[in-house]
Amino acid sequence: MSDAPALEVAGVSKRFGIRDALRDVDLVVPPGRVHGLLGPNGAGKTTLMRILLGLVSRDAGSVQLLGQPLERAGQSIPHRVAGSVEMPSFYPYLSGRRNLEILARLDGIWSARPLARGRIEDALAQVGLEAAADARVATYSAGMRQRLGLAAALLRSPRLLLLDEPTSALDPAGARRVRALARRLADNGVAVVVSSHDMAEVEELCRTVTILDHGAVIFSDTVDELRARAPAGVHELHTSDDSAAIAMGLRQPGLRVRPAHGGGLEVVANPDALDAYVIALGRAGVAVRALGSRTASLESLFLDLTGRAVA
Amino acid sequence: MWSVVGVECLKLRAQFKARLVLGVCLVGPFAFAVAMQLQSSMPSDTLFGRAVKESGFALSLVVLGFAALWAFPLLTSVVAGDLFSGEDRYGTWKMVLTRSCSRAEVFAGKTAAAVGFSCLASLLLAASSVAAGLMIIGGGPLIDLSGVLLPSDQALYRVSLAWASILPPVLAVTAMSVLLSVVSRSSVVGVGIPVVLALLMQLAALLDGPEPLRRLLITSGFVAWHGLLAQPPFYGSLVHSATVSAVCFGGCLAIAYWQLRQRDIGG
What we know:
Shape of chain A: globular
Structural class of chain B: mainly alpha
Oligomer: heterodimer
Strand content of chain A: 25-35%
Number of domains of chain B: 1
Number of helices of chain A: 10
Number of strands of chain B: 2
Mean pLDDT of chain B: 88
Largest interface: A-B, 36 and 29 residues
Strand order of the largest sheet of chain A: 6-7-8-3-9-10
Distance between the termini of chain B: 25 Å
């Protein structure tokens, strides 16, 4: 496996009118890595994905995809680079298989039809769409369209795969399947960049992560390094009335309370502030059912970095 | 580029509107010929209308005259005006433009498909009208606009030239539809506005406006074939209309390509 980065972004900036969508963004992803791209709404994740796929022009900076420079938007993206942005769209009056045939033609592989047909069947099988392949796309659910979008990307036998929220419309089983597929591809040397709003997904899937906020990179390193920056004193709290506990937390100095991913509350506080908070809860008639320290979730770390909810 | 042309052909084959247009071009002249045979009156207020029951070639020219006034802008823009904006309607630009084709290739392929479809529809209408005339009316000689009787072989030659002469304005309308489709990103605009513009130009041609201005109208090319059916034939208006059409064709496509190339593809 080559050590050269599969994706190299240096100093990319983009401005829409008076708003900076991206500011001097750097990103390097080696082969065989699943890299997460996180950020609040409007942070610039999708704009960056669009630039990488040649859909949007950049105002400054350089992009190298599999070692080949992407000079400008509108040129064909290199072979074996694939991806999708937001919810994939297809011709609704054609079947899923016929849509993939169209893409195979645009990729220039249709001239070798047995090979192209084999790739189409393989891609459909990988995303579990064989049974619905001959139905018109107009009859597909959002999740099926998302899986067809992934099949469209796989058709290019990618070495660099750029996926913008690839599981947003999938049920848990479908999302698990896609995550397994991403891991399998990475194990085979494919670089996968995943933009996601699902923190648990990024935590489970990615070894490295880049966090964007207001168009700028505010963190880019391993997930372990992100965890190492965890604020001290993160606690998991279960009470008889979480709403009242959150309201009280807003009035208590020196601590922060918010709903935890998976239920209960997450309390960030030093021991003195936590003691005072628990006593106050008891006095207010809110029973503390469980309290323990926990590892900071990626979400809480994200909130600490950006001060905003992830999206 | 040819892969894009193949894709567009595949998509057009699956679209009802494309089949409908070609079906009308194929069947319409036969229906008109049958109707002429069955009714006693003739379209005597149109060129060659009086001879429509005497020569199949006259029937073809009546169809040409009618199509030139009303049908060609619609027949061509119904596909050309939707080829680009259809991608906006379905949100498929992000799929098409992230494959192994550059925007230049996509533009060239789509434009070639639009031009090909316009030519196919025009040629189909021409062939069908001649066939309908010959099969239902017969291949009798044709009296041209100067009153000279043209034998069948001469008539077929002149009628074929007349149909060929409308290709430049047809292509100009096609290019106009492509431009509006790219710029507006709306199929309603891409299909509807060229038809409306063509009708306005037809109306403007009927007014007593300055001659140089009338000569700049694309639709003047739709009636430039009249000179081919005169003795001696005159070609000045044909050359002029071909020039105007070529300028319109090149200009519209250049602007459309520039627009597509500059565009950021959003949601």
